[in-house]
Each structure stands twice: as C-alpha cells, then as structure tokens.
Protein: ROK family protein
Amino acid sequence: MTKIKKLDQETIKKINQNNVLYLLYRHDQLTKHDIAKKLGISIPTVVTNINELIELGFVEEAGVGKSTGGRKPVIVKFLPDSRYSMGVVITKDYVRMVLTNLHFEIIKEVSISIDEELQSIDYIIEAVKEFQKNVCEELSIDENKILGIGFSLPGTVNEKTLILENAINLGIKNIDFKNYDFNCPVYIENEANASAYAEYFVYPDKSNSKLIFVSITEGIGTGIVFNSLLYKGANKRAGEWGHMTIVKDGKSCACGKNGCWEVYASSKALLKTYNKDTGLKRRNISEIFMELDEDYKTQKVVDEYLEYLAEGIKNIILIMDPDKIVIGGEIAFYEDYIKEALNEKVYKPNAFFTAKDCKIEFTKLKANASVIGAALLPVMPLFFNNNITI
Ligand SMILES: [Zn+2]
Structure:
C-alpha cells in the first residue's frame, strides 16, 4: 500500500512540474500567483516546482510585477535556450538536420543530398552523429543540454519499439534505431504524423484538436491529430490515405495496388501527367505553376489534378469529420495558385459538409513542418506526462 501511495505522489509531482513548465512555455512569463490560479494548485506547490525548475535551469525569476495590494509578485520567466533538441528528416533525396531551442527556433541546420550509392542508413546515421558533434563544438553547447534526437521518417514507424518497419520510397524495412548510439534519447515518427503534430502544437488554436495534415510531395502521407493526440492505429499505419483507391483498376502504384490517391494527386503525379500530356520535359512543378496564368493546357492539367486532390480530401472529411485539413509538403508552396480552385471543388454543394464545418488551410510551418515535428519529439516529455500518441 505504501509503495502505491509513494508512486502516486511521484506521478502527481511529475504532472505538476510538467504543467508548470508547459504553462510558462506558452506564456513566456507569469507570476507565481498567476501559475497557481491557472493550474488550480496551491502557492507552496508552485514555489516548490519553480525552485526545482530554476535549479534545472529551465526558468528564472525576472523582477516583480504590479502589486494588487500586498507584496509585489515575483515574475517567473521561461528560458528557451536552456535546452536544445535535434530534428532529422530523412527523404529519398536528402537528409536535413536542425538544432532548435525550446521555442523551436532553428539555430543551426545542415542538409546533405544522398544519391543511391550513399543511401544506406548507416551512412545517414554517421552524418547525424557528425552534425551532433560539430554543432556542440561550434556553438559551445554542453552535449547534456541536447534533450534528444527526433527522426521524421517516410514510412510506417513504431515509435515505442523505435523500429522503422517499412519505408517504400527509401526501399528499406525493419530498421531498429535502438542499434544506434547517439549518447542521448532517440525518438522516431512518421513524416506526416510529425508534421501534423508540429502544426497542431506550434500554432495552437481552438479548432486544432481534430486536425488532419496532408503532406503532398513525391507521395501523399497524412497525419491525424485527434483530441490533441496523434492517432496511430492498432498497427501504426493509420492515415495511409495516399494509398486509398481513387480510381478502380487505375494506374499502378509502388505499393503494389492500382489507382491509389498518390498516383493521381502527389506533386510527382502532377509533374508526370503534365509532361505526358504536353510532351514537355519539366523538371519540377514550379515550372508548371509559373505558366499557369498564360497557358490553357497547363490550366487544364492543374484543374484535373485538383479534381483528384479534392476527391481524396472529400473522402477524408467524410470519414473523419475533422476541424481542419492542413495541406503541407511541396504542393503547399503554391497555395496562392490552388487555394481557391481546391476550395471550390471540395465544398461543391453536398449533403454532409460545408466550408464552415471543416476548414482547408495550408501549413504555417511551410517547409519546416516535418523537421520541427522531429525536433518536437524529444521536448514533449518536458511538458506532458503521457505519450502524445494513441
Ligand atoms: Zn499505393
């Protein structure tokens, strides 16, 4: 009995400390009185927690606020540079590594392109270790101040066992991240999931708790934030909407099926269709959008592309009924060109939903959603006692 009681007290203590630090992260600075009021805990509990957090270097006392009668209240300030986090994005073509502070500001970053010969996971791991070592030396950061390394990966990820189970686009499977020693905790997550959580966490608003992030690049990945947690499903494969059938017996997909959404609505699909229909050899989709205003053929290809994109989004809205869909990945750079037409196609009058029920937005994190999502992972245990996934 005594043991259970002790454990409970420790858990409560941990939860209180998480809550105090998270509150200060969100507000930057607050008086101890404000903290007690907002969290519904006693002033002595706040004082104990603040003293511990000062000792750990996460916060500091920063002067006094206005008195409302008695003694002037002491202001406590969150210190974003007290710890750091590393985020790593691995794609088919490049590896991007960043160091962020606790406000998720990128302090240092390095990208390396990888060709097929060098595309072994061991090569990538060595590059990450080198970045970790160099960044500490260059910026004179104590290695212990790096909370951990988060990896954002294009495939099925078991974040608990630290195994990348399958990454079709990288051509690798069953990569066990427990085998790599980084001298700090390691976290892994699927790319779209990491991006979804980053969008939810960095830009919190009331309509964010049921959010679907649709990452559109080479393929289509989606991440589901459900009631503020990442929904991963029974086998960690939830949100593989890139492979839902959008055209029966349609074009073949790398997954082995036919007619998958990503074969019609990824940025790669847009480029492929455009080059096939026009006989031109554009190398990237930016060249397509540059011609959009003047060229009828280009308008036709993009319009058809958006029809497919809209079909998939409509299916997601019908299945999940989210507060918002956030479009990310390469296609999101062309928001100004596609937003209006996409909205028109998705919200065509129907029996179930209107634009008021579920908004379509474009990522506010732009090209950083995935890498910030990776860097978030080692920081979350500071703020939450429970896992961020269900
Ligand atoms: Zn597929």
